[in-house]
Write a structure and sequence with these properties.
Length: 76
């Protein structure tokens, strides 16, 4: 089984926020803040292409299956 998550951040920001998506497909739930310079975040963004999310926001949708770094971020 895998977990789905969304990482969102303002363009150029040092910090982003992580939300997990419930298994039933409900609204994402805030899971915490992450430093964009964290090696796990950088590894994830090298594998998952971020996309514009309106205004100056960016987001990346991923699952624990996408990489070991993704699983670590969700578990943290």
């Amino acid at each position: 089984m895998f977990r789905r998550a969304i990482l969102r951040w303002p363009n150029g920001s040092d910090w982003g926020h992580l939300a997990t998506v419930p298994d039933d497909g409900g609204l994402p739930q805030f899971a915490g803040f992450v430093q964009m310079s964290d090696s796990r975040v950088q590894d994830l963004l090298a594998r998952i292409a971020p996309r514009p999310a309106g205004g100056d926001m960016w987001e990346a949708h991923f699952t624990t299956n996408d990489s070991e770094s993704a699983a670590e971020l969700i578990a943290a």
